[in-house]
Amino acid sequence: MRQDFTIGIDCGSTTTKAVVFSRTGEIVGLGRRRVPQHMDEPRHVERDMHEAWRAVVEAVRDALESSGVPPQAIAGVGVTAHGDGLFVLDRSRSPLGRGIMSLDSRATELHEEWKREGRLEKVVPIAGQRPYPYSATTLLAWMKRHQPDRYAEIGTVFFAKDWIRLCLTGEIATDLTEASTSFTDLYTQDYSDSILDVLEISEIRGALPRMLLSCDRGGVITRDAAMATGLLEGTPVSAGLHDVTAAAVGLGYTQPGDLSITAGTFSINEIFRSRPVIGEGWSCRAGYRKGLWNCMAISPASSSNLEWLARMLLPEEKEAAQILTGEVEARLGRSRAERPVPLYHPFLFGSPYEAPASASLFGVQSWHDRADLFQAMIEGTIFNHREHVETLRLTGAVRRLGVSGGGSGQASIAQMFADILNVPVEISSVREAGALGAALTASVAVGLYDSLEDAVVAQDIPMTVYQPEPARVRIYEGIYQRYVALTQAMKPFWSGLYEGTAESLSQDETEQAPVSTFLVATEMTQEVRL
């Protein structure tokens, strides 16, 4: 039987999907399951590893059933999952507690301590990035300090997708894109003992698994996995990709200079480069193959803001965000100047800045309605993406730029991205980009294509290009400059916003901040009235 199909498994922060794809990227079957996040303690966001595997089993079975494709026709399986964080096994290969997700912030104080000691800066020239509070290295150091018995029992350190691949194949491994989130040398793209030494977790070196390239074979479906999922025993499984890289590949971006934006829980902005580039405002990690690098600028400040407001405004509606997006779309055909809307800082869950930030709405009037507030949030999240994109331009030329998520599948929202970024924006017709990126690694692993670049070219995926409209560009340029000015004006207030006093401000700041804030607010009000 011809094996013309692959399966991509994408284990996201809240939903696991399994998708059956044709050789040209057509979706022929889909299964999905929600997976809970466990937040039993403040700052802890965890995933039960057994629950994650059960979700995969059910999603794969549903995907196969809905596709009508027999298991014998599946050439290979690829896996991606929510990246960063930390999953650990004991020496008997069993989960050593729950997996820790990238939304977790338990290690924030330790991270601040490293910052004061200068450790973060010592890591940058080695790794091309500072560890985040949710990086595996930071979480391991936290575990060493606060859970020493657990730390001492660690036999394997890897990541969410690696756990799923282990359940499918019985093989322990990780891939280059995932390892480079914490453990690899920027230049050699191999494991770095120096990183572990600087962060004082060198004893963990023996727990780091073998590192594969994303399109390598990571094993084959075992008998137990076949019985659970309905896949054929012996079906090859590729090493797979970090979720951010998988999404870029699935959208068709594999070349140096390709910049992709994903507006999801995180504001993800990434561009491939043919050489490592270190700088402020981005992390330089490994691409999907050696000799390729991925410069990433991210913050937890994107469409999660929209979901939050939708739940507040329409708590009984399951599709609240879609309803509100439709209301905004109905107004976007008019000039942006005809109906001024408030300005929004999208920092509900975090920001790109080291200082603690807070979300804010500016310029709200009694006549504004829920659609105005929702539009302000959409614009604010895109302004945040623009700030990241402008930072990434410092790494070199941008060949092309694509957007997914955040309502960008709607023409009016896609046009807003083009107008605010002031560049042509490509919108792919792919709706399961992460799963497709994973599936394409499987297609290369089994020999359907010679390279990931060839696999992407072979996909029949229409792109729609939105050109910036000069009149809207001029309006949004003025609003964006006020967005930036208001950010600077608010920074002195963020740290003490909920303290009840102004003690956290210096005397100079308390004297100057109100004046600067008044001037910025006055300028914005004058523009809004134009």
Automatic annotation (TrEMBL):
Domain named Carbohydrate kinase FGGY C-terminal is located at 261-445
Q: Which CDD domains match?
A: ASKHA_NBD_FGGY_EcLyxK-like
> Which processes are annotated in GO (biological process)?
carbohydrate metabolic process
Where the record annotates domain Carbohydrate kinase FGGY N-terminal, the positions are 6-250
Which keywords describe this protein according to UniProt?
Kinase, Transferase
Which PROSITE patterns does the protein's record reference?
Answer: FGGY_KINASES_2
Presence of keyword Transmembrane: no
Among the GO molecular function terms of this UniProt record, one is: kinase activity
Do you know which Pfam families this protein is assigned to?
Answer: FGGY_C, FGGY_N
Q: Does the keyword Cell cycle apply?
A: no
Give the family this protein belongs to, as stated in its UniProt record. Answer: Belongs to the FGGY kinase family.
What is the protein name given in its UniProt record?
Carbohydrate kinase
